[in-house]
């Protein structure tokens, strides 16, 4: 938990359901936990087999908590932690030409920039072709089913919480065939 900060962590129920859908175990790949809070989504992904994680939050308390949690579970050598605004972090990651197999976007529900972030991620190739992006938001806001080459493959509702799962489309507009989430439903 992040002390003294208004952080709305993804509930255990939602996290369990999410990982049942995207897979119980992973074979490598990098994870980006944007708006990391305590880092629980990225840590869970690392514990299930992701190779390396990048954790980003603009709160000093959250960054401190993520670093402590990484040390506690022994993943500090497999992670990078940054105190930065999400949009600035995405620009830096794009300049580094990184791409991620798993991206978690869980901004404060009052924020309205998820569509812009999804568009940027798609335009700059930050999600691998077989990767999965999770966008969590409040039920009062809506996301489109497509942002450039990102296409929604599933929508999950948990009370006031909504999760959209996106994957990249192939250049011809055809969803990924093998290994894609769309094939698991």
Automatic annotation (TrEMBL):
- Per the UniProt entry, what is one GO biological process? methylation
Query: What InterPro entries does the database record attribute to this sequence?
Result: RNA_MeTrfase_RsmD, SAM-dependent_MTases_sf
Q: List the Pfam families hit by this protein, alphabetically.
A: Cons_hypoth95
Question: Which UniProt keyword terms apply here?
Answer: Methyltransferase, Transferase
**GO molecular function terms here?**
methyltransferase activity
Q: Which NCBIfam families does the record cross-reference, listed alphabetically?
A: 16S rRNA (guanine(966)-N(2))-methyltransferase RsmD
Name of this chain's protein = Methyltransferase
Protein source organism: Kroppenstedtia guangzhouensis
